[in-house]
Structure prediction request, 367 residues.
Amino acid sequence: MRKVIHVDMDAFYASVEQRDDPSLRGRPVVVAWRGARSVVCAASYEARVFGVRSAMPAIRAERLCPDAVFVPPDFARYKAVSQQIRAIFARHTELVEPLSLDEAYLDVTRPRSGLASATDIARHIRAAIFEETGLTASAGVAPSKFVAKIASDWRKPDGLFVVPPARVLDFLAPLAVGRLPGVGRVTEARLQELGIATVADLRAQPADALVAEFGRWGRRLHELAFGIDEHPVEPERPHTQISSEDTLEQDLPLDALAPHVRRMAARTWAAWERQRERDVQAGRPPRQPRTIVLKLKTADFRILTRSLSPPRPPRAGQALADTACALLGRVDLPPATRYRLVGVGLANLAHDPQADLFDGPHDAPRA
Prediction:
């Protein structure tokens, strides 16, 4: 049985800002650029009291908390602190799966530090983070990744919560089904229509009935209800999608988006080439992207995507840009619609031993 720790830094970006500028301590801090086009990267706990949350428009955050201190993000500084924290993880295990700069899974089933239990390791990690960075972290300990992740949120901020194997079913039972990984608002609403509001309700459903309603995902829901999750902690997990997106300076109509789509395609292709180089250096087999994705966000924050899996994948940035622009033709919203965000992605990265992705450019497939 695995011993998994999920470590989640508390209001990471905002906490770094408060640590480095004592005048910000105890004040509502919002990490974001001011302006109608910006979104919140992080909010301190003092700002969260007012309802400010990550990813909300900065202008809304300002309305919710007029006294908030807006601080522009400094990602280079946050990344440097994140590397300090990962060095602390490495003292205990080589099995570390970063999810972002501020959270990670650790498999400590066979720790290199020699500590007796996963709980002791989590305590040592949190103490070392505070001593060496001045920041607090919350942690969850459990026999699986998804339960550990839920547990890390249980006593935030600066908390530790342990779910031993014998307590997993009791811990999950009263939770809303929306707490399970992969259950978004649409799936949660559909489950509630079926009278399934909690994990206990879900557990009471026969697996065959869930499969009939949700297909293969129904089988996964049944497993999660019983705390079953065999996914291992995966260090250096290869990306399955690479994308870039940007919020435009002003809302634009569809026919004005092509230059911005091409700019995002160039950025995505550059990121893809960097990932390819990392794969080569790590000795991983080459992969190729099977799907091209166009992402748009309207002025009223509606998100839509269009995708294409061509017979042959793009072999140059120009081909990616041409196909992404062709996908604009699949957007069927009214002509008066304005768009505030554009993104381009390469998805379904998979190994194909029969193909050589980089044997020269070819014409983009028609979308």
Remarks:
- Residues 353-367 have pLDDT under 50 and may be disordered.
